[in-house]
């Protein structure tokens, strides 16, 4: 990879103008439509944030195609709209109503008023990143759903490099702290348990339109060169199919730019109290091709994360070092003014030398394991995307192949006795390979009509191969237990959604998805000379509906109410000692577990106040979860899936953004929820007063971004965040020994930025809080409840980025 990377760097450096700046240009393909719709499409295609009085713009916009400057495009879109624009220094576009010309005095006659011009005075108005999670360009401030989005710039300012960092920015987002490449993401307090096994993830993770996981942990793709991240809460069964009953987290990388050459180099260094140092390097390059009709973009990165936990039994220090390396290569070509072909590949590898839990009974960041617990996570993806956009509507088709492999080792010494072994030291190796093929096709009708609709087809084919090996290591080494399991699953679905304007300010949204899921499992368990084979097949089909009302009484406020449903398919249990009966007794797995479903009832309000300086969003929801699936562990330490009962969650989400002055923005959000088990099944020892595992009833955070010009070419920047995570428990049984959470964490940074340089210093966990973020070590220690996962100790670091374009 290095020779190719070096050649691209040389080419980009030779082609890049030195310290030159030019008016921003982009490749436009905006159909003729309403001005509001054209502004939303422009924001997506030009990759800019949009804010202000967008809804007050009237009239129609002409069709725009080809390469053009941003200011030229805005002038043409707003020509007959009674609106004007402002491009702020941070690149955001602010739309304002044009001032009415003053009435001429009686004499002498006043000259005719001049046409509206771009706004020149700076305004502390907030801007919005325009999102496409709902398959149309929308602002989170007006979309009739609970939707949060962050720009790439906001992600950089917050210091977020992975999904776990986003939890400090999103209300109700919880990430288990097992380690990079091992974590599970939960949204809105909808938790099926803190462990990852055979069940489909309740949160759909997407890169553009491609799902990243099925029954797998978050691959933890590094958030570098990102255009935006979109988080949609609640069941997304209509547009995203079975699985995401808690919501969708969608990562949208920067697309190849057909207008600008770019080279960006970055590096960072950090020191953790009581731990090894950390470091990172990255490169981003963009090269236009074919006279502006195409482009390629490259991202490559590598980082080392220093360990801070000592293992006294093995006499090793700082055992939990880690490394993450990877990259993306993407392309984009305009086939015609209306059609674009894009695609590329993604690859990433994570290696951690050990887990980072410690024992409650040992002081400091120490533990006493008998076996090291390394983890490796390898992710790759290739995709192609065809988009057509014209006065006839929009067609988008995506085909992709995802490969995801991960292997984990656990100290299984305490679990050998369940398999009749006399060994004193043992290890469990869990190796899983997932291959996923996806095809997604959707057509959207033209904008600007009273009835707007979309329809599409989805197909996926998943093959999962799982090998579990339990080995005695001392005093003699021999195989104790192993299982080779293969799962096949195919899903085919047709979906449609429509929006009908009942009046100018009241719209009805309705849609549904019909799906058919076929699944099959083949397993062979071996223990000593005994074998236990199994083959099983199943099919699930159904319909996921959605119904919503959206009301916009004026340009500043909008309200919505919606009902939606999501489903997950069932499956089979196969793991366990050779004597496992798969009976219907408590804490015994059934051979087959059933699917589950979740109904969500929600009311939301969104408003803009103080002339656009304050944005407010609130959502009140009730979720009814039937036949809840959960991954759990047998006394032997092997995993199984069980329907634990019925659950429910009632909650209130609140978000507020405030820009009191142009240089300062404050963002805050909170979730107040009551997740619970409403009816327990006899097959599982769940308790209604335990809540749902791993999710707190209360969480809140506040983020502050400040920027002040120091000179014509340099800005002083500062950012800070404080987050509170409420108490929760690891399991369904309400045991106090599994308690975790109830802590505050923070981050602060300060730096300078010019047109080509950005340098900053930061500190995380400044008060060196040693809270328990995750009360789980490995499946063989779960009954003991003696493990705790601390926050990373106070870390001080610096980052620097150089960009030429």
TrEMBL record:
Residues 1-20 form the signal peptide. Keywords: Cell outer membrane, Ion transport, Membrane, Receptor, Signal, TonB box, Transmembrane, Transmembrane beta strand, Transport. The keyword Signal applies. It comes from the Bacteria. Residues 312-765 form the TonB-dependent receptor-like beta-barrel domain. PROSITE patterns: TONB_DEPENDENT_REC_3. It is a multi-pass membrane protein. Residues 141-248 form the TonB-dependent receptor plug domain. It is found in: Cell outer membrane. InterPro entries: Beta-barrel_TonB (IPR000531), Plug_dom (IPR012910), TonB-dep_rcpt-like (IPR039426). Belongs to the TonB-dependent receptor family. This is TonB-dependent receptor. It comes from Brevundimonas nasdae.
